[in-house]
Specification:
By secondary structure, this protein is α/β, with parallel strands linked by helices. The chain has 16 helices and ten strands.
Length: 419
């Protein structure tokens, strides 16, 4: 079985393409089961975040063509619209890629920690869907261990850099004093929690958290001395917001041009800073056309992130060295699995021959034959049976000058050098 990765990310595809291939969390389980039902796919997991969508598969055929066709059909996207944005990794390349992704080395924000949690969620979801087998399961566990080692042994996560941090840094450039501003955060996941923390540390004046589930919004708002609203209440409060940051898993936009335009009129055209961290997007792109609205997406934060990332570059070099070692370790495990079935078959064959010899010996004992003679015959016959086929194959190897096979046999059976 080969291990293959097929995906796209912030480096290869714009957000307009990424959002079309994104798999909402509520749909992942059923999508995984349909993927595993695809001919040639034995194991599968899906990682879908704002910056990437990746399909990890254990397959009998390394060719990604059928998988590309399946993605096009599943996501209802023309193959030509996304194919040239895709990248493919197989076997050792997949192992290295997954280790780098989990360690934050392939992220827009170098070393960001959220991706490890997202990979763990992807593994958990695939486990629940029943699409993870021995190989991918072991690969994910080794991936988590490699990422932990990178975090422990390097300083890659020391400086505060994330898309949430970048968004607040950008807000501070627009508003000199955040203590005079009101922020509305849409969603209640890890990114929004991180944004709320950064805003609180920057002494935001007022913090409002809107979420589809009010209780979750209320729980989060309590941590940061804010207050919660449901999504249905968002239009009533939007005009109060100087800063809006949104990150949900909604498959459709939550804020359209009309609702934001109404809020701007109610604000008497006082500027509004908006950051959409979701993929698919929570805020319609047309909102950027409105005067007095400054709308940014995850892709727009790239420059701000680059400024904060320089301190992590040296740690990234150390992380790559750790990953080299961890890839080697996993490849050794993977190679060992190739011998497992052979060892099992060899033992099964030997045990069958043993059982046949033992059965015959016990029958002879019941007939009253001499026990010593029975043991001698059994030992001789068992020896002849066990060595017959290898001897025949070695003679054949000698006839055809297969010196490599003869040398392998000497090593395998630990035979003394005749010289």
């Amino acid at each position: 079985m080969a291990i293959i990765t097929l995906g796209l990310n912030h480096q290869t595809a714009p957000i307009s393409v990424r959002e079309r291939l994104a798999v909402p969390q509520d749909f992942v389980v059923n999508t995984l089961r349909r993927l595993r039902d695809l001919q040639g796919v034995e194991e599968a997991a899906i990682l879908s975040t704002c910056n990437r969508t990746e399909f990890y598969c254990g397959v009998s055929d390394r060719s990604p063509e059928s998988l590309v066709d399946w993605i096009a059909h599943e996501q209802r996207v023309n193959r030509e619209d996304f194919q040239h944005y895709l990248y493919t990794h197989t076997d050792s390349s997949t192992i290295r890629h997954m280790f780098r992704v989990a360690s934050g080395l392939d992220s827009m924000v170098l070393g960001e920690p959220q991706i490890l949690g997202q990979m763990k969620s992807a593994y958990q979801t695939a486990t629940e869907a029943g699409t993870i087998g021995k190989t991918l399961g072991k690969l994910f566990q080794h991936t988590f261990a490699a990422a932990k080692k990178v975090r422990t042994d390097t300083a890659i996560g020391n400086s505060p850099v994330s898309v949430a941090f970048a968004a607040i840094r950008l807000a501070q450039r627009i508003f000199e004093d955040l203590s005079q501003q009101t922020a509305i955060l849409i969603g209640a996941g890890e990114t929004i929690e991180l944004t709320a923390r950064h805003l609180t540390e920057s002494r935001i004046g007022e913090l409002i958290i809107a979420n589809r589930t009010y209780d979750r919004a209320h729980l989060l708002a309590q941590q940061f001395n804010g207050f919660a609203i449901s999504l249905s209440e968002l239009p009533q409060h939007l005009s109060r917001a100087d800063i809006v940051v949104s990150s949900t898993g909604s498959p459709l936009p939550l804020l359209g041009k009309g609702s934001v335009e109404s809020a701007i009129k109610a604000r008497k055209h006082k500027p509004m800073f908006m950051v959409d961290l979701a993929v698919p997007r929570d805020i319609e792109p047309e909102v950027a056309q409105l005067r007095d609205v400054y709308l940014y997406t995850v892709d727009d934060l790239r420059n701000t992130i680059q400024e904060s990332m320089r301190s992590r570059q040296e740690a990234a070099k150390q992380a790559e060295e750790i990953i080299d070692v961890e890839v080697s370790h996993f490849l050794n495990w993977l190679r060992a699995q190739g011998a497992t079935s052979t060892i099992r078959d060899l033992r099964t064959q030997a045990e069958q021959l043993r059982d046949e010899a033992l059965f015959k010996a016990l029958q002879d004992l019941k007939r009253g034959q001499d026990p010593q003679q029975i043991l001698e015959v059994m030992a001789m016959q068992l020896t002849n049976t066990l060595t017959h086929l290898p001897s025949t194959q070695l003679k054949h190897a000698g006839t055809h000058e297969r010196h490599d096979l003869i040398a392998a046999a000497r090593e395998l059976f630990q035979l003394k050098d005749p010289n």
